[in-house]
Each structure stands twice: as C-alpha cells, then as structure tokens.
From TrEMBL:
One of its GO terms (cellular component) is extracellular region. SMART domains: BID_2. Belongs to the serine-aspartate repeat-containing protein (SDr) family. Keywords: Secreted, Signal. It comes from Listeria booriae. This is BIG2 domain-containing protein. InterPro entries: Big_2, Ig-like_fold, Invasin/intimin_cell_adhesion, Sdr_B. Residues 357-434, 658-735, 758-841, 850-927, 968-1057 form the BIG2 domain. Residues 1-36 form the signal peptide. It is found in: Secreted. It comes from the Bacteria.
Amino acid sequence: MQNNHSFKKLGKTTLVGTLALGMMVTPIISSIQANAAEGAKGSISDAMFEDLNGNGQKDSNEAGISGIKITLFNDQGVEVATTTSAADGSYNFDNVDEGTYYMHVDTATFPDNYKLFTTQGFGSDGNSSYFHVAAGETVSGYHLGFYKKAGGTISSTVFNDLNINGKQDEGEAGLSGAKVVLYNVSGEKIAETTTAADGSYTFANIPAGTYYEHVTLPKNAKLVSGEQFGSDGNTGYFAVNSEQQITNLNVGAKINTAAISGTITDKASQQGMKDIEMVLYTIDGTRVASTTTDASGNYKFANLAEDFYYVHAIVPDGDSVVDTRGFGMDAYSYYIQIGADTQADNFNLTLKGNTVEPTDIVVNTDNIAAKVGDKGKIDASVQPSDATDKTLTYTVSDPSILSVDADGNWTALAKGEADITVTTANGISKVIHVVVSEKVGEFKSFVFEDTNKNGTKEAGEAGVPGATVALHGADGSVVATQTTDANGQYDFKDVPVGTYYIVVTAPAGYDIKSNHAFGTDGVTGYINVTESVVTNYECALIKDVAPITVSSIKWINNKEGGNVELMDRDNIQIQDNYVDADNNPIVNIKLYDQNNNVIDLTGYTVTMGDDTIATGAIDGNNVELTRHKAGATSVTIKDSSGRVVKNFVLNITASVIPATDITLGATNIDTTIGTTGKIDATVQPANATDKSLTYTSANTNILTVAADGTWEAKGEGTTTVTVKTANNITKTITVNVTSPISVQLKNIPSYPDRTIVPNDQLNITTDYVNTYGSHDLDFKYYDKTSAEVNPANYTVTSSDTSVISLKANQGDGYMRLSVNAAGSSVITIKDAKGNIIRQFTVNVAQGAILPTGVTVANSAVTTKVTSTGSISATVQPANATNKALTYTSSNPDVLKVNPDGSWEAMNNGTATVTVKTSNGLTTTVTFTVQAYFSTILEQGNFNPDKANGGAVTYYDSIADLSASDNITLTYNTLDAKVADTTQTNGRRQFIFYVDGSPVNFNTDYSFSISNPTVLNSDISNNTEGARTLGHIEVKVTKGTSKITVTRTSDGKVVKTINVTVQ
C-alpha cells in the first residue's frame, strides 16, 4: 500500500517482477487523473499493457494485455465489483458510488508469457493506494506494464568427430547440410533447420515446454557420438524454459572417407589434361556431383555416401578416347560399389585430339631497320591456315635494345642490333633481324666579329677563326668540342636527338657580345635537337679596347664606417634607415685608377636589378645608390665600352622585421586526459625581430597551456588554444580531449553493459542487486583498444559515502561501489595527477526494504494428532516492504502446514516447519506430535466355558499400539473358535483409551475396516456395550486389512492401523 490505511482481511499476493525494472528505469509515481462529467456516479478506467519502452505509460503502439483480474473494494475491505482487462487491455468500473476505494490485482491471472515491468498506482502487495471517487468523476492512473518473455534458444553443432570422443576438438570441422527437427512432447513438428557451413544450428524464441530433437545426417555421414542423442538420431525429452540457452545438443558424425579418383591424359604429350569435366551419377542415373580435372589431369570425388556409382567424362569436341582403365570407350565408367571407406582410384582415360600441326611461319620481312623510339608489329601467320593451334610466341635476343610483347608489338629502345624469334606451339621458328639506329640532327653556324656591335652577322662582318666551341648535354657533360675554321664556322654532325647547350670561348683580343643566341658569358640556352640542321646560333665577338684599369672602388661618405673598399666585396648591407654623412639615404661610390686618381665616369652606366628597392645614378664622378625599401638588388657598373667594371648586391634589411605569420605543426590535437605535449609554432619570417608567442587556452578545465607552449590535458571536451605574436597575429588550434579509458557498468540484471558518459545519471533503488546477487555497482575500465585497465591506477571518490561508497579492490579488474542508502552521490574518477577522468551521479531511490530476519514465538511445539494451531512468526524489520512468509513441513504426513502458517497434526511423529522470508531468510519450528489415543491394547480373547462362567483365555496380547501404524498378528488356533452355547468366539480385541479413559464407539467415534474378510467385526461380541468401552472386536484370518478410526464431531481420522495376520 502507498499510505497508512489498514485493509480489511484480504488474501496476500506479490507483484513478482517489480524489481526487474532495473538500473535505468526511473521510478514512476502513481498519478490520479479525474475528469469531471455530469452524473450521479463515478467510474474507474485504465488499461494493462505491454510497456515496450518502459516509460510506465501506454503509448499508441503498445498492445493491451487481456484477462487480468481486478477487484474493487471499499475502504472497509468489502468487495464491490470484479472485472478483467479486455482484449485492448482496458478495464472499467462504471456506476461507482461516491466514496473511498482501493483495487486489488490478481497476479495469478498474469499471462504466462509476460513479465511485470512497470507499475503505477499499485503496490508490491497487489493492492492500490486508497483513492476517492466523486460523483461524475472518472479516476485513472492505476495500471501495470508488462514485457514479453523471450523464448528459449537451442544452439548446438553437428561436427566431424574424427576421434569419436563426443567433443568438437581443434581441427574437427562442422558438418553442413544435416537436417535437425524439433518436436514437442506430442510428436508435433515445431521447427526444422539445416546446419550451416560451420555445422551450427539454432532454434530461437522457443516457447517454454518439453521437446525432443531428431537429426538426419547427410548420406555420407553416420552418427557416432552425441551425449543427448541416441543411435536413432533422437534425443530424450528435455525442458526449455523462457530465456534459457541450451547448447549441449551437439552431434558427432563420422564422414565417409570413400572416394573415386583418376587421371585424364593426352596421348600425344603424355601430360594430364586440364579442365575436363567429370560427372558422378548413382546407379539410377541421378547426378550427384561434377568436377573438372586439375593442371595435372587429376580428378576426385571425395566423402561419398555408401552406394553404387558411375562416372562420365565429357570428352572435348575433336578428341576421342584411345585408352581406358575402369571406363568404356564411350567415356562412361563401370559401376562402382562404394563402402564407407572405399578408395576407388585409377579410373583413368587417355584422349587423342584430331589436330592439324603447324608446318611453317610466314613473315612479311626478315629484316627491320628502326630508330630509337620507333614502334611496330611483326606480321606473322601460321601455315597451314587450318592448323589447330595457331599460337605464336615472340622472344627478343637483347631486351635492352628492343622489346616485344605477346602479340608481336615491338619498341626500339636503344642503338644496336637484336633478333626477334617467332615460334609456333610445336616449335617451328623464324628469326627477324632488327637494326636500331639513333635519330640525329646537326648544329652548324658561325662565330663572327660584330663590328657594329648589334649582335647580328651582317655583310662584311667576317668570321673569327680559333674560337673554341663546346657542345654540352642537358646534364652539363661535354658531348663534343670544335675550333672555328678560317671562316669562323663550327659544325657538329650526327648529334643524337635531345637537349643541348653550346659554350663559346672567345680567342684572345675578343669579348663576347650578347645577342639572341648567346649571353655575354658565351653560353646559349637549352636547344632541343630534332632530325634537322640547326643554323641560327651565331656568336658575336667584339675586339677589346684597352680599358682604364680600375684599381679601387670605395664606399665613401659612410658616416658609420668611413670609406669602405668594395673591390673584393660582392655585397653591401645597410638597413632601411641608413643615411650617409650628409643624412641622405644614399650609398656613395667612387672608382680609382692605379695611381689612386678618381676615374672620370663619363659614359659609365649603373644598372639595378630591382629599382623598387634602390635606384642607381651617375652624378659626376660619383655612383649614387638611393635606398627605397628593404630587400636585395643587384648593382652592375659598366664602363663606356660596356665592359662590366663591378657586380655586387645591395642588401637592405629592415631595421625592425615584423612577424607576418605563424606556422603551426598541427591545427588539430586529439589527446586524452593526463597527456602532455608542446605546441609546435614558429614565427614567420625566420628573421622577425620579435619572435615571442603567447598561448591562451579557451577552457583551462579542459587544457592548460604554459608560457612556453607546453600543455596538459585536464578534462574531457573540446577547446581552442590561441597562439599570438607580439604584433597580434593569431592562429587557433582546436584541441579535443577524451578520457583515456571507457568506464562500463557491468552485471546489470536483464540489461546489457552500459558505457558511462560524462555527467551521466544512474537511477537505481536501494534494493538493487547485480547479476551475482551482490548489492554493488560493478564497473570495468577499458583503454582505446578495448583492453581492460587496472582500476587501481585511478582514484574514486563519492560525494556522499552514506549513499554510495567505494569497496576495496579485490584484484579481479572490477571497481565496485556499494549501494548503502537512498539519496544522490557524485562519483569522481581521477588519474594519478588528480585529473577528472569521468564524473557521474548515482541517484538511489528508496526501494523495497528487505527482511533482515524472522522470529517465531515458539521454536518447539508438542501437540497430538488432530490438534491445530498457527505459527506466530514476525519479520524484521517491522517496516520491511514484503513481509510475506512461506511455511514448509519436512513431513506433511505428520504435520500439515498451510500457506498462512496454520497447521494440523496428522499423525504421531516429528516434523520441522521451515519459515522463510521473501528473500530466503529462514527459521524453524520443531513439532513433536503425540498419538491421539493415550493407549491402544490388542489381545486375543476366548472363553471355552461360557456356560459356566469359566475363566477367559487371553493370548497374543500387545500392551500398547498408540504409537504404531503397522502391526503383525500371528494367527492362533484359538482364532478359529466359533461361539456356541458352551464357548465364545475366538477373537481379537482392540481397546482404545484417551487420557486413561476408554472411548465410546457408539457416540464419539466410529471405525471402518478395509478388508472384513481378514478382520471381521460382524460378530456377536461386537456389542453396544463393548463399543461403549472402546472395544473393536474382530475375528481374524490370514491376510492384511486396515482399521480407520474417525472422530464423530468433525469427521477427522484420528488413527489408522495397518494389520497383517500371518
């Protein structure tokens, strides 16, 4: 019940399954919905249903559960009405008077194939809370949710039991194609399947019941083992329970090793013939299997069933059978009888083909002249034209000179000679000779005196003899060298096609004038030579004019360094803020002759490589270089003849070089908690004045980063790190931090393992137990490879140990939390550095309060037959949710105990009653049951002198039978005496006493005799007076019979004596 009302007397029941709600189902609180409606009476309405999603509410897709009995009681415990849920699960109580009520659900009417899942409004005792029904109101919110029990599963294997030990050992393959049929106890076929390739078979979702299986093996196998199977292929009966897994119905089979094999041979080559189709038939012409011969001509049909067979070879068109073994000339074998292990080998055939052999090869040429890079195809054909095999092969004698493929296509690779051999399948060949030459071109031109200095050879400008001309390959190697002839001509003949350049060295007294073909250094650009004559590479020379000798070149007016000699320097370096002694941004240069006189620069020129960096000018006898910006530029000073006096580089560096970019080693970092590293960041350019960087983490709870870029992952999540230069250029790195371990909750009853996510909420009740019956939450840790991690490497704390506390590490890989009381506790798992690896909350609702013990008022009771009573038992604690008790008698023939603890003494003896709580705690009450009658005497009685009142003869007396259920009497000669005028009957007297007084068989007790032939009470001695004195008097004969004594007041049997007369 859910409140403190007391019910009037009502039978007890238990809602079995309330605890099966499991870990993750949040407890549901009953609600009452009242809908106002006009009318003088109220109603109650709701439904019983299949709660598919466990939310405690009937959704549109959830079917109703019919046939559940619900009884309505008023608050005095008086039954008002009873109904059962309809096909859609609904139930209704209409026309209910205004008042307070409760309902009771009968668990005995729950469907067998469903299990209680969720409850709303009903307690674990099957009773609802009290609720009020007002006039015109409809009360709802009282329902039960169920889930359908899964059927049982049978999963086993049929396998090739090579060693016949009944177990599938390594190397023993499963047997496919075995038929397995499941029957119920009535012999009706329930299901049928065939074993898979690995021999496995499965029957799933089998309703609870009793079944047997029959297995039919393939024809080539026989049953040799199977613990549950007989030689007829049947199992015995076995039970399948709901959700039970049965895996021991395995069958060991022996697969026949019988085989038929042989070889198909080509007569001409005496080699095996590949891909000849072979077909196997049974004697009745049924096709069994087919195969093809392998590369050696072999074939085999293996693992054959015991039968008669024949083999047919499919002879290729054009071939014929010329020799056989085991075959006829029609390529059909003889009949072959195969036993379990028969090896019928050497069923062979020899075939002869109707072939036309090649006799010659016709080629269109015997010689080929080619150049490097040329391609072609050999035109060859087999003679005669109707040759069976026209295959040709092509081989080349020197693959470095010529390549040829399987179709006769060739490519000339290098200069040289090679032979191509063309060969038929039967070895006839032809040779084609190939000569490969290189493709060549020619360089032919002049070196001349360019008198007008325009770079072009014109009429009247003579050639210059004695100039050295060198031809270079593209790799710089010298290919050939010539000296120009009297006309200044050079001519390089037979130059292989390719890329070259030419270098001219002028004879003494000449300088080279640059033109379209040559630079001032006498070098051409790269020239691509084809199969042609190149004639446009003329080199212009001009005669030397005696120059003024420049002996010194000085950087003057340099206020920082004075006059700096530049003659031997190839560069000048200044900053972009450089000024001369006159504070002008100018580099001043003067040239001096051998006498240290300033040279007149009339006609001199200064040329800048990049005049955006600096410009140059001749100002009188000064060379002035005016800086503009940072950078480097070439500077060339030439005299009036165009001769280069000085080449150097002016390098202007920035006085402050700002950062322009940041280069990152990675823009994304994936890591785990506790991992450390360093950000790989570099300021660009490399010569930036200030290369300092700052690092900022957007969330230091996830990642901390130090001033030097070293970082440490602290918690799960995604954050960013901003890298910034001194001049505020930034780059962002995304960092994703995950836990190094996965935390999984294990051993959850009726649920799969659960992975704990960050800030997870686990909802359980105080009576939660795991699959091992322990009041613990069991966790395991796994790394990224799913390997188990030792929980000892991490610390675990609970925010409220009165609710959840950590249990000691047992060394078995589990982290265990003890469930102590209702409440909530935050569980924190940290690594050795104190980083939080996982944090989650366990919410513990108050569940059922389990009994802790049971006591009885009396642990030992002495009573006697027919007495009744009740065991007074109390469950501890007083507020236990389920106080139900069960009572079991060790000897119901002595003491019968009822479900409510009431008992009745049935027979003398001892019995122990075990009192057990709902969770299995027990205590006992020992009963000693005494006989109902304090004394029962038996004696033989005969008076031979009845007429004279003579003495009575007593014989075979037994002092007390009150504690005996079975007695044996010995037949006496006196038992045969029959009453007449002189004597009495010889008879046996059974005399019954209670507390020392004889009983009255006329008023208080009656008796019956099962076999009156053996014990005959229909005698004159069995008078009313004798019965008043507790006598049962009988004449006896040999045999067995039973005396049953019944108490008249209540009809209870108070004594049974089994009597044997021998």
